[in-house]
Each structure stands twice: as structure tokens, then as C-alpha cells.
Amino acid sequence: MKFEDLLLEIGGFGRFQILILAILCLPRINLPMHFLLHNFLAATPSHHCAIPHQEAFVNLTTEEVLLISIPRKPDGTFSSCEMFSQPQFHLLLNSSLQPENKSSIQHCQHGWVYDHSQFTSTISTQWDLVCEQRGLNQATATFFFIGVTIGAMVFGYLSDRFGRKTMLQLSLVCSVAFGMLSAASVSYTMLAITRTLTGVALSGLSLIVLPLGMEWVDVQHRTFTGILSSIFWSVGNMLLALAAYLVREWHWLLVAVTGPCLLSIVCLWWVPESARWLIAKGKVKQAHRHLLRCARMNGRKDFAVSPEVRNWRSRHALTKMATDKNMGGSYSYISLFRTPVLRKISLCSGVVWFGVAFSYYGMSMNLTGFGLNIYLSQFVFGVIEIPAKMVMYVLVNRVGRRQSQAWTLILTGLCIGTNIVIPKPFSSVRSVVAVLGKGFSEAAFTTVFLYTSELYPTILRQNGMGYTSFMARLGGALAPLVFLLDEVWRSLPEVTYCGVAVCSGAVAFLLPETLNVRLPEGIEDVE
């Protein structure tokens, strides 16, 4: 008797599964509020060098003081990182004149003055992470994703070893602790360390929530479960825009996006451990207790008295099922590469995950590049994800997982590439193309979570998700640093995002199709 057959007897998608999914959607909402927080936490408002002895220019307007103190860039705007060593009073007569001496231009000597009309404070304004320190500002996101990368490996292994629910609880508690410590940071070093540790903790949420939900539903509802979970990511995206709009001070914004984890900790007590995992580990009594609870809640009261289940209740029968098809034994990340088919799946899915995350975060962290207000961009990028997911719900069941995964990635790359050639003045066209690209990017992310959880067998599923999540977070960690390449060539970041997305989409064609295929339990099922 297969576990899928057992699920059909106790109800593969009833009130029990709906309750689990509803509770697991809470931490799902919270994830993007941290993963995309860098857009607001480290936002850099317009700024210029602080002008010393400004009180000496009481007879001049603010514009005139800037004119004699700050050089202009070729586009006519005032420089953010340079100032005149001496006031250039002759520019008051004719602002188009050049400074009398080029050597009079120097880097900011007395700090910076920031425009606080949009942000009360960010880490950029708090610690002057601009100009020569701009790299440290972008590195904040990289530190966070390095933490997520480490956490993917740690929680992937631990959740296969000690259980999905236990590690999810640990992840939530640590997320609250490190999130609050981040909000209390008194130096950039403290913030970098605590944000890295927050990334480690949140990685458990990202890694465990979807597989835990999917391991309780039948084959027919796996796609729906994956899409539903992904929709709540988009809800979190939109709520982040609202939270950032209402809370303009970075310390309190961190508190606002961390607080909801407390509700998830409380609600998680009603979520059972994965019965699949319990069976795979030979924990028969616990598995049977959860299955009976599922049957009762789903109205399958005859489950406990059916002859087949009476036999199933014996520890010997359950253990036989658990050890069938290589279900027993100890497995690690090395097991993902020992057999030919699993090796191919692991290599290809790693490339796909890297490409999905690299292009997704490349677009998500460039909110100011399309001519829209930063809060509106965040909200619109969240809204467009929902219809993208709805379309994917149909596509993955019609054309299959593999085709959907490949083409959404390729189209994401093409949209990014298209915006390279569209002139900056056409901001409306650029915005439309960017929103389309964001939709394709989110569709690729939605598909890859569902697709990967179906590719790996139960005994290696969390190891597989841990490895692929590691590759994704590696992409996420590198994505913000690529923006620094604009100093080499203005369009180089976009060219990089485009190329990676298209190439990883092509690799997706090498993966096997999983549409309407039962979840594999052991390695032999895959091979």
C-alpha cells in the first residue's frame, strides 16, 4: 500500500489539509517582507555634500548656495559625491561657466545632507553608506542572502534528520530574536551580523513551509497547494509596500516586518509533523496518530475500522512500507549526486534555481529604474505576481512543469534585455516591460518551488530543497552586487541578468517532466 493510496482513504484534500495550508501561509506572507526589505532599509535618498559655514551665505538662496558649492554633473543635476574646495562665486553670474580651477573639485569633506521627504532614516543616511561606501550599502543585502544560503544547507539537512515541524518552530523563534536584534543595531557591523543571522533563520521558513504542506495533500491538489503558497508570497510583497509607506524609520520598519513571526509561532502548534517523514523514519505510532486525526477531521470515520487499515496499524506493516524502495537508511547531500538520474536532476535544478533567484532579485531590487514611485513599484510588482501565478496554475497542468519552467525564465531574460534598448525617456514603456518581466520572473519562481519538490524522493526531498535553495540564495546574494557593475558599463547589470536568465531557462529543458506523476518515495522510484 503506497502512501498516496492511504491519503485517498483519509481524504487527500479536506478540512485537515485546508487548516494546515492556512496556518503555513502566515510565515509565507512574512518571508518577502524580509527578503525584499533591502529596497527600503537601505534606500539612498538624493543627497549632496554638506557645505561648511553655510551661515555665511545668508543673502543667498538654497539653490544659489548649492550652485557655488557643488559641481554639476553632465545631466545638469548637482553631484552627490563632490564639492568645491572654495565657493565659486562667478557661477552666480553665469551658471553655465566652468569652475575656475578643476583642482578645486574634491570629495565630500564634511559628510552629506540628505533629502528626508521620502525616508525619515535608512541605514544609508544613518551611517553615510554613499559614494565610496556605496558598496557596503549593497553588501547589506548580500550579507542577508549569505545567511539564507548557509541556512538552506543547515535546515535542509536538519529537517530531514529531526523533522519538518521542529525545525520550522526553531526557524521562527530565531527569526524573531535576530530580527529584533537587527532593529536595535547601533553600528553597521552589528547590523551586518544580525541580518546575516536573520537570513539563516528565515531560510528554514523558506525551505520547509511548502514541502510540509505538500506532503499532506494528494497528487491532484499538489499544484493548487504550490500556487496558493506562492500567492501569499505576493501578498507579503504588497504588505511590505504598505508597511514601508507607513513606517519611514528603518529601526521601526524592521520591528514591523518581524513582529508577525510571533503569530506564526503560536499558530504552528496546530500543524502536525509530516506523516511521510514519520513513516520514512519508522516513527509508526506518531504517523498513525496524525493520520487518524486527519481522517476524523475530513469526515472519514470508517478509516480506523477498515480491514486494510487494521493491518496497516501494525508496526511491522508500517515499517515495511517505510523501508520499501530504499526508504530506510541515512542520507546526506552527497546522496543527491551518487546515482545517474539524481545527479543530472541536481546539477540542472541547481542551475535553474540560481537563474531564477538571480533574475528575480535583480528586478525586485531595482525599483527606481523604471520611472515609478518606489512604494508604487513595490506594490505593482506584488500585484502582477498574482495573475502570473493564476496563469501558471493552468499552464503547469496543461503544458507541464518543464516547458513552463524553461519558457518563463527565457521570457524574463528577454524582457530585461528589451529594457536595455528602450531609451530612458520612454519611462511608461519601460515600466510596462519591467512589470511583464517581473510577472514572468515570479511565474518562474512559482514553478520552480513546485517542480523541485516533485523531482526529489521523500527521503531526500529536504536535502534536495536545501541544495537548490543554497543555489538560489547564492544567486540572491550576488544579484545586488551586480548593480555595482554600472561603473564599468551602465547597461552591464541588465545584460548580466538577461544572459543568466536565458541560459538557465535553456538548462530547464534537460529536467524530467513530473506532471501527474506520484511523488517518489525512495531513490529507486527516481532512477
From TrEMBL:
<feature type="transmembrane region" description="Helical">
    <location>
        <begin position="224"/>
        <end position="246"/>
    </location>
</feature>
<dbReference type="InterPro" id="IPR036259">
    <property type="entry name" value="MFS_trans_sf"/>
</dbReference>
<keyword id="KW-0813">Transport</keyword>
<feature type="transmembrane region" description="Helical">
    <location>
        <begin position="252"/>
        <end position="271"/>
    </location>
</feature>
<feature type="transmembrane region" description="Helical">
    <location>
        <begin position="345"/>
        <end position="363"/>
    </location>
</feature>
<keyword id="KW-1003">Cell membrane</keyword>
<dbReference type="GO" id="GO:0016324">
    <property type="term" value="C:apical plasma membrane"/>
</dbReference>
<feature type="domain" description="Major facilitator superfamily (MFS) profile">
    <location>
        <begin position="87"/>
        <end position="516"/>
    </location>
</feature>
<dbReference type="GO" id="GO:0016323">
    <property type="term" value="C:basolateral plasma membrane"/>
</dbReference>
<comment type="similarity">
    <text>Belongs to the major facilitator (TC 2.A.1) superfamily. Organic cation transporter (TC 2.A.1.19) family.</text>
</comment>
<dbReference type="GO" id="GO:0006811">
    <property type="term" value="P:monoatomic ion transport"/>
</dbReference>
<feature type="transmembrane region" description="Helical">
    <location>
        <begin position="375"/>
        <end position="395"/>
    </location>
</feature>
<keyword id="KW-0812">Transmembrane</keyword>
<feature type="transmembrane region" description="Helical">
    <location>
        <begin position="197"/>
        <end position="217"/>
    </location>
</feature>
<dbReference type="GO" id="GO:0008514">
    <property type="term" value="F:organic anion transmembrane transporter activity"/>
</dbReference>
<dbReference type="GO" id="GO:0015132">
    <property type="term" value="F:prostaglandin transmembrane transporter activity"/>
</dbReference>
<dbReference type="InterPro" id="IPR020846">
    <property type="entry name" value="MFS_dom"/>
</dbReference>
<dbReference type="InterPro" id="IPR005828">
    <property type="entry name" value="MFS_sugar_transport-like"/>
</dbReference>
<dbReference type="Pfam" id="PF00083">
    <property type="entry name" value="Sugar_tr"/>
</dbReference>
<protein>
    <recommendedName>
        <fullName>Solute carrier family 22 member 7</fullName>
    </recommendedName>
</protein>
<keyword id="KW-0472">Membrane</keyword>
<feature type="transmembrane region" description="Helical">
    <location>
        <begin position="170"/>
        <end position="191"/>
    </location>
</feature>
<keyword id="KW-1133">Transmembrane helix</keyword>
<feature type="transmembrane region" description="Helical">
    <location>
        <begin position="139"/>
        <end position="158"/>
    </location>
</feature>
<keyword id="KW-0406">Ion transport</keyword>
